[in-house]
Design brief:
Helix content is about 35%, strand content about 5%. With about 100 residues, it is mainly α. The protein has a domain at about 1-40: Histone, subunit A (Orthogonal Bundle). A two-stranded antiparallel sheet has the order 1-2.
């Protein structure tokens, strides 16, 4: 599976990234290289490998929950495409 220019531009738009032409060309090549490398896994016989979330045992990965100051509203909404007062404005409906 390869990523074409149109898909790359769509993802960049969703991520609100403005890319120059040379960045688009470079990213398209890099992303396709990554997909090629990952697709090599499908060539392996993994029938005897149990599903795992981590290759190594992971313990104590979460720190204690400790209260800390909230982000100021202006900072939290600084990159919001639309806002309504102190809230994100989102299109009605949708959802899954």
């Amino acid at each position: 599976m390869a990523i074409d220019r149109e898909q790359l531009l769509h993802v960049a738009h969703l991520a609100r990234l403005e890319l120059r032409e040379e960045e688009i060309q470079r990213l398209e090549g890099q992303l396709n290289d990554i997909l090629d490398a990952v697709s090599k896994v499908s060539e392996l016989d993994l029938s005897d490998v149990p599903p795992t979330s981590h290759p190594l045992e992971v313990v104590n990965v979460l720190g204690d929950d400790e209260p800390r100051p909230c982000l100021p509203v202006e900072e939290a909404l600084a990159n919001a495409p639309e806002r309504e007062g102190d809230f994100f404005r989102v299109p009605p409906g949708g959802g899954g």
